[in-house]
Specification:
Elements (H helix, E strand, L loop, with lengths): L10 H4 L15 E2 L14 E5 L4 E6 L6 E6 L7 E6 L6 E6 L6 E6 L4 E6 L8 E8 L10 E7 L9 E8 L13 E2 L8 E6 L7 E6 L5 E5 L5 E7 L6 E2 L1 E8 L13 E6 L5 E6 L3 E5 L8 H9 L2 E5 L7 E6 L5 E5 L7 E6 L4
Length: 352
């Protein structure tokens, strides 16, 4: 939210991402804390994180400058507030709008073109703030066993003691855009799981979410002091889920900024759950969280306090509220529309 004040096999969609992958000149990120990275494997210029059970996403050792992949010209994408990259459908990203909009999830191509609309039946969207793609079951594959998670957790005025997470299976088919109108695949009410959660102590404004390999959800609070509270939720159907406070992350960048530029607006985890990408209105940071997010709260607090942080060279967006890892390396970011001007879909890739 804004600050206060088999029918089609989707082959046609693969091409929409090609333009976004043609990236050029190299620039290294600015490392704020400890330096260095492990030996490169996989993609050129990338390292891969792993938790011992399977591979994570390739993560750049050096980064190319942010490149505009396309414009989000569809009027249905005016208040974009979250991104998730499909593993099942090549070249497809999932997104949504924030408070005051209908319960819709949109598929877009890697060039920003609106491809399809999912109407979530029998539900509402109080203040959806982030979307994530994760396994439907603990340890599940994010392509064959993929679910989309929605964070209905926004609360600028800190009035709600209860929030919710929605989850449903990623569609097996994405209807390609027709000449006159995008395709639509409705998601039946019975297919949508809603998990309620109760904030400990006091309400929070939360605009950033990520999903662990075991399906637990990580939430990051939006605060004015340059720090973000890290919360963990175990999803329990039919009960009011508890929220564990794991610790804090420091988003202040030299010269220790406060206020708008460091309010957390989006996040994403690599598939191994060890590399946390966080964006604010003013920066993008990579936190090498390791096992911190799966540790007991008393252990996690210390681990998060000592975590390595890297500030990345990303696109500058005054109202940026969306970020997602790319399975091929690098990440995507996007923003709400500014006035009548369409927002830009950006991609930051690994340097060779």
């Amino acid at each position: 939210m804004k600050s206060p004040n088999p029918k089609s096999n989707c082959r046609t969609l693969a091409a929409v991402c090609v333009a976004a992958l043609a990236l050029a000149a190299c620039s290294r990120c600015s490392e704020v804390d400890s330096a260095g990275a492990s030996a490169a494997v996989g993609l050129p210029g990338a390292v891969t994180a792993t938790d011992g059970s399977g591979p994570g996403l390739p993560v750049c050792v050096a980064w190319e400058p942010a490149k505009a992949a396309g414009l989000l010209v569809s009027d249905q994408l005016a208040e974009l507030s979250g991104l998730a990259v499909s593993r099942r459908h090549a070249g497809v990203l999932w997104t949504h709008n924030d408070a005051g909009n209908k319960a819709r999830v949109y598929a877009i191509g890697g060039n920003g073109v609106h491809v399809a609309t999912l109407k979530l039946k029998g539900t509402d969207a109080r203040d959806w703030e982030d979307i994530a793609l994760g396994p439907c079951t603990a340890g599940g594959d994010r392509a064959a066993d993929a679910c989309l998670y929605l964070a209905d957790t926004g609360d600028n005025d800190l009035r709600h003691s209860v929030a919710s997470i929605l989850r449903f299976h990623e569609p097996k088919w994405v209807a390609p855009r027709r000449a006159d109108e995008p395709g639509r695949d409705d998601v039946a009410s019975a297919a949508i799981e809603r998990f309620s959660l109760a904030w400990p102590g006091a309400p929070r404004d939360v605009e950033a979410m990520a999903v662990l390999p075991d399906t637990r959800v990580i939430l990051l609070s939006k605060r004015d002091d340059g720090r973000s509270e890290v919360l963990r939720v175990t999803l329990k159907p039919g009960t009011l889920g508890g929220v564990e406070v794991l610790g804090e992350l420091d988003l202040r960048a030299p010269p220790l900024l406060k206020g708008g530029p460091v309010r957390v607006t989006a996040a994403d985890l690599d598939d191994a759950g060890q590399l946390l990408l966080v964006r604010t209105y003013g920066l993008v940071a990579l936190f090498e969280v390791g096992d911190a997010l799966t540790s007991a709260p008393d252990v996690a607090t210390g681990l998060l306090a000592a975590v390595k942080r890297t500030i990345l060279a990303a696109a500058t967006e005054a109202q940026g509220e969306a970020i997602a890892w790319d399975p091929s390396g690098g990440f995507w970011q996007a923003s709400e529309r500014s006035g009548k001007q369409p927002a830009t879909l950006w991609r930051v890739g690994c340097a060779p």
